[in-house]
Amino acid sequence: PRSGRPLKFSERIRRWIMTSIRQYRFTYISEIQAACPETISRSTIRRYIKDAGLDSRISRKKPFLTAAQRKTRLYWCTKYTKGWTQGEWDRVVWTDECSFEVGKNAGRLRCWRKPDEAFNPDCLRPTFKSGRSSLMVWGCIIKGRKSPLVFLEKPEGATRNSVTAQRYIDEVLRPVLIPFWTEMCEERGWAEVVEDNCRIHTAKISKAFRAQWGLESMLWPAASPDLNPIENVWALLKLKVAQLNPRPRSVPELKIALTRIWDELDPSTFDPYIDSMAKRVMLCVANKGGHTKY
Q1: What is the per-residue DSSP string for 67-130?
Q2: Measured by CB atoms within 10 angstroms of the end CB, which terminus of the chain is less buried, N or C?
Q3: pTM for this one?
Q4: pLDDT tier at 27 (50, 70, 90 boundaries)?
Q5: Same domain (yes/no): 141, 221
Q6: How many independent structural domains does the chain possess?
């Protein structure tokens, strides 16, 4: 005979609980308790989940990927795993825009998963494009260097901050990116430029303006912030803003804070992000175009 206290609930109930968890990783224990065919305590449910090796962990935010986007990411990463050295990654100018909201404190959603399931599709919290922003900034980095921070502010009298392709040319390309890229080309022999597929980057007038200067951006896979090291820089910047005491309470205060933090950041701080590019593309290929830990 089996030693020890007999199980209070059958193996069927244990399987039902685990099936419920795996069908929807974001379910609450109270919801499982309410739907359970038998009366069961929350502590028993929690113990069953723990015994299965699952814990309540913060759900990672990642852009939603379609099958076509995964295929494009796989193709792009496969291309750059062949023949590209770290020296070539060091000659890439990584650009991007980022929005900062005054006083924003994004909530974190928990899910039930094992330590190695962080990037399983059913454990991710998908993010989607949104036009909501308080202060839009643009910046770029290259190994060992950074550009000035550009604020794409809402025009006076406008109801929303609409950054057009013409504004992108007038406020970013002409005064900042073209001079920065030209300087890097002279310093390093040549430099590639990465821009995402935002409309202001792909507009005909933006392409025509870049062509006048001989600048042709690298083709970029959609929904791939994990492949752009500057996204890690934005995360660092947002962390430093969140750590301010007191925090900025208005857009002008936020602008002052961002300028000071950006100016104080040593460009060498970003080097590890760029040094990880070979690992990023290899991991994306291993995940068949899926998300990476970056």
Answers
A1: HHHHHHHHHHHHHHHSS--HHHHTTEEEEEEEEE-TT------EEEE-GGGTT-GGG-EEE---
A2: N
A3: 0.77
A4: confident
A5: yes
A6: 2
